[in-house]
Amino acid sequence: FAGEWLTGGGLARYRPYHLTHHRFAQQAEDPDLGLSAPFPITRLSLRRKLVRDLTGQTFFKQRFGDLAARLRARKPGQPLLPILAEEVRRKRRWLMGGVVITAIGLPFGAWWAWPVLWVLPQATWYPMITRLRNIAEHACIAKDEPDPLRHARTTKANLLERALLAPYYVNYHCEHHMFMHLPCYQLPRAHRALAKAGVTKSMLVEPGGYLKVLSLAASRPAS
């Protein structure tokens, strides 16, 4: 119940998606393959993607792209209300969360809490961070890579990167793929054990941090 409702994300739907990603990492059946397949790209292309993230364009496309498409396809005379009602039904969890947070904050003058502390970061910072993490985890890895130790990349993160990009040790992504049921706080310990056993020499590990991975991801020469 807590994982399904208190997060506001609908983990029951996300779980099979993520399990499929683990089962078919870097293969044609991987639902996340499209996120990492285009790399490397040019620096200009990466900059455009990040600008779209920070300006809310990515959020709007992901969150309201279907609604925009249905509105564009609406025929003359077709009622608008059923389309909007269906959108509210689809977004009811998100909207209910906003109503609850606003109702709690309103008596304290914090009516702005949901749009400022939730929607604004969700529409700007979060898409960019999600993109950067996905790049670090799977970009520039060969499709159908036969070595399971190289399906994902572990990126060494400094304190600032851990605070802004990689909380909960998500930078230990190769270890996460190797031991997917391991709690996040045990991933550094798993990395140390693998290093002691000499396994990390065969793994895809970037010691230079996220900037080094981004440099690799944006290494395609401009045409």
Brief rundown of the structure:
With 223 residues, the protein is mainly alpha-helical. The protein has helices at 2-6, 11-23, 33-36, 43-54, 57-72, 81-90, 92-105, 113-123, 125-138, 159-164, 173-178, 187-196, 209-217, and strands at 153-155, 204-206.
SSE arrangement:
Blueprint: H1 2-6, H2 11-23, H3 33-36, H4 43-54, H5 57-72, H6 81-90, H7 92-105, H8 113-123, H9 125-138, E1 153-155, H10 159-164, H11 173-178, H12 187-196, E2 204-206, H13 209-217
Parallel strand pairs: 1-2
Helix pairs in contact: 4-9, 9-13
Explain this structure to me?
The chain has 223 residues and is an all-alpha fold. It contains 13 helices and two strands. Strands 1-2 form a two-stranded parallel sheet. Helix 4 (43-54) packs antiparallel against helix 9 and helix 9 (125-138) packs across helix 13 (209-217). The mean pLDDT is 92.
Strand content: under 5%
Number of extended strands: 2
Structural class category: mainly alpha
Mean pLDDT: 92
| Order of neighbouring strands in the sheet with most strands | 1-2
Rg to the nearest angstrom?
20 Å
What structural keywords apply?
single chain, 223 residues, 2 strands, globular
